Write a sequence for this structure.
């Protein structure tokens, strides 16, 4: 039934979805200001988790910027994404200090444990694996972020336990 | 005002936050309450103290007692023994070597003793979220002096005479830059701070913004006054959320106190600052790309001239300096150009902050006079290479720089000397590598980086770096061909000569520099299909030295592929057919009997 109705009721669904209201507020706050596109994209991505096509269209219209330019900016900057992500983004730092201290082995272990490649999302939708640029915690190399948590002085054998923490928290939340 | 018997500085730099310093701080507060001395001891959260590897850490004043690698469980002992009874807790002190006597005071630690802190003067000393602490250390006095007693020309002259040069990499004279922006015609001008610290391994700008944000705000205001701008932008990497948070707080406090906004100090001068957060593009550290990004566009560089001083943000004259450069401004204004010019070498005045990381004992942030030798930084301050390994190289200048080797250990670290030996100062990231690092692999790593970060606008950089990466990857996989080294050299020359911006022009540097110093390593990869450092997995095999193996069986247990066999107390063997070269056995072996060859 949902599929059949998708075409006609999405407008009203959007109206009900408070995320779109938030987006409208963000756009209204920045409209007319020079250089507003990047801050708006940052905030929109915070609201939606990613930047789907319809959001891009709304931003282009709201800021009076061609859609091609909105898309051009999104594809240029690595932190913007038009694909949905897992609940937690794992970012393995690939700065030089981390690389010298064995970040490649940590990344390999994550790929194995999650069964995905870089930029992939795990089957349970929990984790998206990414490599990041230097996060500036070189003293603790090698380093990875999971969401807002930072893990330093990593060894491949630490990975299982760290992932399990998130998986268990998720199970408990479900129960 | 409350008077405290002791001040406890808890490092809350990004590194220590990651090591969970907040839990240690909470435990300390808790124990202070329990001991009934919370009124006598003040706990202060500071920015980066510098010794990131030793975190979580605290420094207890007035003496400056340094406690390291703390856990919340240590709080009780510190409070009861030290704070109540006055007895220093020896087991939590720093030891320069495992068997060395512990050192109690920061003043006696080589890491701190040899530093000269100008840009980092407040970082790790004050609470960055309390403007009063900044003001108490002469904060906003320089802005006051400038607005009440100096003309814009005098300010620019002072900076020029100090000899300060850009700390972001190129080393352009700062005063001259200010003068260009001042002289550029136009009513509307901008002051921009480049905090897009992209060079992997450099984290001084992050630490200054997190530990002493007002020093940047104040210096930008002074710059605004000098060149005639009313608006400033700080362009920060999105990877630095804590820096954005603390800078935002600092901006609000400065506005509240009338130190930012309309009619600062009651004068005609008005100035305000906005934060622009990057979105993950290394090229945006390049000045013209950064300006384009502030305008909300794809951060592609544009040709110079026109230079930003003439045509910058939104086409207006723009002054652009990096964080560390701004952090030097206020002390120059307060102490005079002559004072600053006396520090450092003839052409490189003042100090430089280095972020030391990689294979080194004391990783962290240090500020030393220009002209300090690499040996002093790595061995005296940095404590040398861990596990008694040999120093092989230090990379400066990140993906745009080059490596320094043993023969350069006594080189003076200043702009000219580093450039002369084929490296560069860059932003001050210093990655130390030990004998187990493969230089071909490191060159591949950097090219992988620049290939990814090339914005794609110009062909030499976009296609050239891809081709170089292909060759380097081939070498590390044992598929190198005769003539590859020469191809790399030709490509490197062409890319350097014909790229549009600094990213492309410097992208081949890591290859050229490693080729210059470690050519035999490249040749071993090409001709003998051998990796002398034992890092390139396709070119090595793991092997048990029968004379060293005691047959303890630990390697058998950790091997994920059951590739190791042997009877107890007899030398074991690795089946190379089954071995996946994970290295777990080598890590585990207590007798160092497992080797790569």
């Amino acid at each position: 039934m949902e599929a059949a109705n998708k075409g006609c009721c999405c407008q009203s669904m959007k109206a009900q979805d408070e995320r779109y209201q938030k987006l409208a507020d963000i756009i209204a706050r920045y409209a007319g200001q020079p250089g507003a596109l990047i801050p708006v994209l940052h905030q929109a991505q915070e609201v939606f988790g990613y930047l789907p096509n319809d959001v891009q269209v709304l931003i282009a219209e709201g800021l009076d910027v061609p859609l091609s330019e909105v898309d051009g900016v999104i594809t240029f900057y690595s932190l913007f994404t038009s694909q949905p992500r897992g609940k937690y983004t794992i970012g393995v730092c690939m700065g030089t200090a981390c690389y010298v201290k064995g970040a490649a082995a940590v990344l390999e272990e994550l790929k194995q444990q999650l069964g995905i490649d870089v930029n992939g999302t795990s089957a349970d939708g929990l984790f998206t694996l990414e490599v990041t640029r230097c996060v500036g915690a070189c003293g603790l190399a090698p380093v990875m972020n999971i969401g807002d948590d930072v893990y330093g002085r990593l060894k491949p054998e630490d990975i299982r336990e760290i992932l399990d923490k998130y998986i268990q928290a998720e199970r408990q939340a479900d129960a | 005002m409350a008077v405290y018997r002791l001040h406890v500085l808890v490092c809350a730099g990004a590194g220590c936050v990651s090591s969970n310093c907040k839990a240690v701080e909470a435990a300390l507060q808790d124990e202070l309450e329990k001991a009934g001395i919370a009124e006598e001891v003040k706990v202060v959260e500071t920015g980066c103290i510098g010794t990131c590897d030793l975190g979580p850490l605290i420094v207890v004043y007035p003496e400056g007692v340094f406690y390291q690698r703390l856990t919340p469980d240590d709080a009780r002992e510190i409070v009861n023994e030290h704070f109540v009874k006055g007895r220093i807790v020896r087991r939590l002190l720093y030891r320069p070597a495992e068997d060395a006597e512990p050192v109690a005071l920061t003043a006696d630690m080589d890491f701190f003793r040899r530093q000269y802190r100008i840009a980092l003067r407040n970082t790790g000393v004050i609470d960055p979220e309390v403007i009063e602490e900044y003001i108490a250390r002469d904060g906003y006095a320089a802005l006051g002096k400038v607005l009440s007693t100096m003309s814009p020309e005098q300010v620019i002259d002072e900076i020029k005479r100090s000899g300060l040069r850009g700390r972001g990499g190129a080393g352009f004279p700062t005063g001259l830059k200010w003068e260009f922006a001042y002289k550029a015609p136009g009513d509307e001008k901008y002051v921009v701070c480049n905090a897009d610290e992209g060079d992997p391994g450099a984290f001084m700008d992050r630490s200054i913004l997190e530990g002493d944000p007002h020093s940047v705000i104040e210096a930008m205001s002074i710059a605004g006054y000098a060149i005639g701008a009313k608006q400033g932008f700080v362009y920060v990497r999105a990877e630095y959320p804590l820096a954005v948070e603390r800078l935002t707080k600092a901006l609000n406090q400065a506005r509240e106190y009338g130190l930012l906004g309309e009619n600062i100090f009651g004068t005609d001068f008005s100035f305000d600052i906005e934060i622009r957060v990057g979105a993950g593009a290394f090229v945006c550290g390049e000045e013209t790309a950064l300006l384009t990004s502030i305008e909300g566009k794809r951060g592609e560089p544009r040709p110079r001239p026109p230079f930003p001083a003439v045509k910058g943000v939104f086409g207006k004259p723009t002054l652009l300096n990096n964080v560390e450069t701004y952090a030097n401004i206020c002390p120059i204004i307060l102490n005079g150009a002559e004072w600053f010019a006396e520090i450092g070498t003839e052409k490189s005045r003042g100090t430089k902050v280095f972020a030391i990381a990689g294979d080194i004992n004391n990783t962290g942030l240090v500020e030393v006079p220009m002209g300090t030798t690499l040996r002093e930084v790595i061995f005296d301050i940095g404590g040398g290479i861990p596990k008694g390994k040999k120093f092989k190289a230090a990379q400066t200048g990140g993906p745009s720089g080059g490596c320094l080797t043993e023969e350069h250990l006594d080189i003076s670290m200043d702009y000219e000397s580093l450039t002369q030996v084929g490296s560069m100062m860059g932003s001050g990231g210093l990655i130390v590598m030990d004998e187990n690092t493969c230089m071909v692999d490191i060159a591949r790593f950097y090219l992988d980086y620049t290939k990814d970060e090339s914005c794609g606008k110009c062909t030499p950089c976009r296609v050239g770096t891809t081709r170089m990466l292909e060759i380097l990857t081939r070498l590390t996989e044992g598929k190198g061909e005769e003539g590859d080294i020469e191809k790399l050299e030709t490509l490197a020359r062409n890319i350097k000569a014909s790229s549009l911006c600094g990213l492309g022009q410097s992208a081949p540097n890591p290859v050229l520099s490693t080729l210059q110093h470690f050519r035999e390593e490249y040749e071993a990869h090409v001709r003998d299909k051998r990796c002398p450092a034992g890092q390139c997995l396709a070119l090595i095999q793991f092997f048990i030295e029968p004379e060293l193996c005691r047959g303890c069986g630990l390697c058998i247990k950790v091997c994920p592929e059951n590739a190791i066999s042997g009877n107890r107390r007899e030398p074991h063997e690795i089946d190379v057919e089954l071995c996946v070269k994970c290295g777990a056995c080598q890590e585990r072996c207590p007798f160092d009997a497992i080797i790569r060859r």
Summary: The longest strand of chain A covers residues 88-93.
